[in-house]
Amino acid sequence: MTLLDRFYQGDRIALSKIISYVENQSPDYRRVLAQLYPKAGKAYRMGFTGPPGAGKSTVVDKLTSFLVKENKKVGIIAVDPTSPFTGGALLGDRIRMQDLTNLENVFIRSMATRGSYGGLATTTKEVSLVMDAFGKDYILIETVGVGQVELDVVNACDTTVVILVPESGDSIQAMKAGLMEIADIFVVNKSDREGSNRIVNELDMILDIRRKKGEWEYPVVATEAVNNKGIDLLLTKISEHREFITSHSAFQEHRKNQIKGDIKKILELKVRELVEEKILNSFDVNQIAEKVFRGEDDPYSCVEKVLKQVKISD
Ligand SMILES: Nc1nc2c(ncn2[C@@H]2O[C@H](COP(=O)(O)OP(=O)(O)OP(=O)(O)O)[C@@H](O)[C@H]2O)c(=O)[nH]1
Ligand SMILES: [Mg+2]
């Protein structure tokens, strides 16, 4: 039996192996993804982002427990900022969500950002695709909200949840441009702490400008994740958002835009590889430099000539 056969039979070890294969961009990993692609598209993907320590993992953990009780299959991707010391994922998320790892219907994967430009690990989307093809109903992606990461979350998810804490109050204005714009749902976690009502009200005020009749309501949900409070309401809001977007053409547009983004990304990566393999390696820059130096040719014409000679695709 091949690895893919085992994967299709629901073998978790096969799932884990295929994820590693894709993560490491092993030879032919694109062929594997191409095979899985038609099987994917059924999972609902939610992103959870927000400042470090806001309670993202706790929220994801509690939400997962709810979903599992409803017999749903859940995949979790925890994207950790690359530690400058270990170069790998921090252990924190894994440890906190450990109770879930024993559950048959839950699969957790921690990934490092590897300092890629995107922040969100470049392969997060591919890993999500693999989990989707495996038959997960929900994929929950946790990332620390820094810079570019947020946009990547939106691009990889159907519903984006931004998690803040009462202490975030002072920075709301500063965040407006980034986190505020990407959230479909806001969570004020640690609502057991002082100042929770104030930040909920502040967010409500800012969001009122954005709320339009008949449009999505951009709800703010107060939670105390550690004590499982407010999680049921959050799940209700996520379901409402799902219903909202799937009943509007916006959803189809969003998915189409994601596909366009994917195609461009795949193409860019491929072109970069081809340039490396087929052009830079077969190109004797020293010889050309000599010619140019001797005044026999100019660099522009040389590049054109090189490009005419190479065969890009087989
Ligand atoms: N008081 C209080 N503490 C909470 C609540 N939710 C989570 N915590 C605690 O906050 C700490 C951080 O929670 P995490 O869930 O690890 O936060 P995170 O956002 O995933 O953190 P990073 O992944 O490191 O960015 C933990 O010690 C939690 O127990 C809450 O509702 N109230
Ligand atoms: Mg976490």
Structure described in brief:
This protein has 14 helices and seven strands. It has 314 residues and is of the alpha/beta class.
Walk me through what this model shows.
The chain is of the alpha/beta class. It folds into two domains: about 25-245, 3-Layer(aba) Sandwich (Rossmann fold); about 265-310, no CATH class. It has 14 helices and seven strands. It has helices at about 5-10, 10-25, 30-35, 55-70, 90-95, 100, 125-135, 150-155, 170-180, 195-210, 230-245, 250-280, 285-295, 300-310; strands at about 45-50, 75-80, 105-110, 140-145, 160-165, 185-190, 220. It has a seven-stranded parallel β-sheet, with helices on both faces. Strand 5, helix 9 and strand 6 form a beta-alpha-beta unit. Helix 2 packs antiparallel against helix 7 and helix 4 packs across helix 11. The longest helix is centred in the last third of the chain and has 31 residues, at about 250-280. Mean pLDDT is about 85; it is low at about 85-95 and about 115-120. Magnesium ion binds near residues 56, 57, 92 and 93.
